[in-house]
Amino acid sequence: MTFSTELGTHLECSTPSSLPLQNSSGNDSELPFSGSALNWREQEGKEVWDYVTVREDARMFWWLYYATNPCKNFSELPLVMWLQGGPGGSSTGFGNFEEIGPLDTRLKPRNTTWLQWASLLFVDNPVGTGFSYVNTTDAYAKDLDTVASDMMVLLKSFFDCHKEFQAIQQGTIKCNFSGVALGDSWISPVDSVLSWGPYLYSVSLLDNKGLAEVSDIAEQVLNAVNKGFYKEATQLWGKAEMIIEKNTDGVNFYNILTKSTPDTSMESSLEFFRSPLGDLFLVRLCQRHVRHLQGDALSQLMNGPIKKKLKIIPDDVSWGAQSSSVFISMEEDFMKPVIDIVDTLLELGVNVTVYNGQLDLIVDTIGQESWVQKLKWPQLSRFNQLKWKALYTNPKSSETSAFVKSYENLAFYWILKAGHMVPADQGDMALKMMRLVTQQE
Prior knowledge:
The protein has 441 residues and is α+β, with helices and mostly antiparallel strands. It has 3 domains: 2-185 and 299-317, Rossmann fold; 189-292, no CATH class; 354-437, 3-Layer(aba) Sandwich (Rossmann fold). The chain has helices at 91-100, 144-161, 189-202, 208-226, 230-248, 270-274, 280-289, 296-310, 323-329, 339-347, 365-372, 380-385, 422-425, 427-437; strands at 2-3, 17-20, 46-55, 58-65, 79-82, 119-123, 133-134, 175-176, 179-183, 251-252, 255-259, 351-357, 389-391, 402-407, 410-415. Helix 4 packs antiparallel against helix 5. The chain is globular, with a radius of gyration of 22 Å.
C-alpha cells in the first residue's frame, strides 16, 4: 500500500506490547493474557499493540494482528487497516470482535476472519474512541483535517516501528499504499438523506404522506448544506431520522428488515430539538449511531478480560467512555461532503472500492450511487457503461451474493442481504470481496 506524505512531527518509537493470539489454556471464558512476549519476527499467530501520542493530551490506541495463513508468511500478504465509523465507534472492539477479527465476542474462532488473508491493523480513531483517550476536552478532534492529521502521526510512528511492512523508502510514511475501501461510508451525507424517502417508499416502509414528510425535511437539510450551515444541517439530519422512525414504526437505520431497539429509538425525542441545551439532540444522535457499536456484552469484554490482557490501558480509561464526546465534538463536520477526496484518490491512481449493504438505510445504496455520479473522474462514463457481474460465495450455489462493477481503479460492490455492517451480516461475501480487492482471487 503506497502512502507518502510529509509530517513535521518528531516521534519516538516505543516497544509495543506483544502476547500470543491463541488461548493455549483452552478455556473459552478467558483471554490469552498469560505467557511470555513473542519474538514477532519469528513466530506466527501473534499480535502487538501500543499507544501513540498524536497531539498534546491526545493518545491513540492501535492493535495489530499478523496474518495466520497456513501457506504464506505474513510478509506475502497485505496489511489491512480497519477504521470504524460513528464517529466514536471502536475498531479494536466492534470491528475486531463483531466483524472481521480472529475471535468473536464469545472468544470463539471466527470462520470468516480476514486474518486468513491479511494482517489486520485496528485503530481507535478519532482520539477518545475505544481505548484511545484525551486528557482535556480541548483535545477532541472537531473536524476531518484534525482526524486525518492525527492518523498521519500514528501511521508514521507505526511504520517507523514496523519496518517489516515498509515497501517504498521515500516520503515520511514508508509503506506501499495500494487502495482504500469505503464500506457504507458517509461520503456525501446530503445524498444519503435525500435518498431515504424514495428508498423506504420503494420497499413499502413509507406511504405517500410519509414520503412527503421525509422529502420535505430532506430538502431542508439540502438547503442548509448549500448555505454552509453545517451545524443546522446536523440538527435537521437528526430531525429527519425522528420523522422516519415515526412513519416506519421504528425501522432500524442499520438494517431495514429489523426494528430499532428502545435505547436507540428517537420516537419521543422532539423535546431535544426544542431544548435550549444545544447538545441534547447530539446526545440522542450519538445514542443511535454509536451506542449500538458498544453493546453491554462487548463493553464488558473490552473493559474486563481485554483490558486485563492488554496491560497498558490506564486505570482511569474505560473502553468507549469518551465516545459520546467524540461524536458531539464533530457536530459541525458531519454534513460536509468529501467527494473531492475520493476524486483526488482516483486521480492519484489509488484503487478505490465502494461497497454497500442492500438493507442499509443510514447510508443506503441509492445515496452511494448518487455521489459516485458526481465524481469528476474522467473514466466515470466508461465505468457507467459496464454491465455489473454477479458474485457467488459458493461456486456450487446459484444464489447470488453480490454484484460488482469495476473499471481501472474504481470498483463498486452491491452486497445482497446485508445491512450497514456487511462483514457481520454476510461474512463469507465480505471475505471474498476483501480477497478480490486485494487481488488474491
